Amino acid sequence: MRRPFSSMMPRSWSSFTAFRIRSPAFSACCSRKRSISSGSSVSTVAQVSFWVGDWTLVTTPDRLVEVCRWLRDDPRTRLDFCSDVTASDWPARERRFDVIYCLYSTRHRHRLRVKVRAGDGEPVPSVTEVWPAANWLEREVYDMFGVNITNHPDRRRILMPDQWQGHPQRKDYPLEGPGELLLEDPLDWLRLRNQTTAADIE
Hints:
Layout: H1 13-22, H2 24-34, E1 47-51, E2 54-59, H3 64-73, E3 81-89, E4 97-104, E5 111-118, E6 124-125, H4 134-145, E7 149-150, H5 186-201
Parallel strand pairs: 2-5, 6-7
Antiparallel strand pairs: 1-2, 3-4, 4-5
């Protein structure tokens, strides 16, 4: 029987240190963080963090497929199942999107999140060659957030009509819907609505 989730969480700094030392996935990720690919001075893993019982690994778009393939194949991780792909939008940041891959190992029964930060229009390569199950999940991220997923076998909208304007889960998407024009400034929407109301009254 599996232990309850709460019993797996470190309750102090010392227990956290012991926990991370005992974790094969943590050791593997840290060794990967220190590894430098031949001929390059850029590490494949930018950051490894642990928060509320979950490990997160942050990498860059140009190293995403390489890191994901390693996480799938390394015997210490064996993250053979991509259970979800999602994103979060931070418009104030230069790289506004966090593209998040939720991974699971059916052999070791542990989980890991891989996070990639990307700017608007910046290419993020598809991981369908590593996990075919990511196909429709990446299509949803493209449809809802407009993340530029590249090298995808079938990149098209999956929830919205093909002619839909904008991407509904962006923070700057207008709450009233796109209408005829995609106006991102709320004041522009207010002025347009007032003009339409005044015309209807006349």
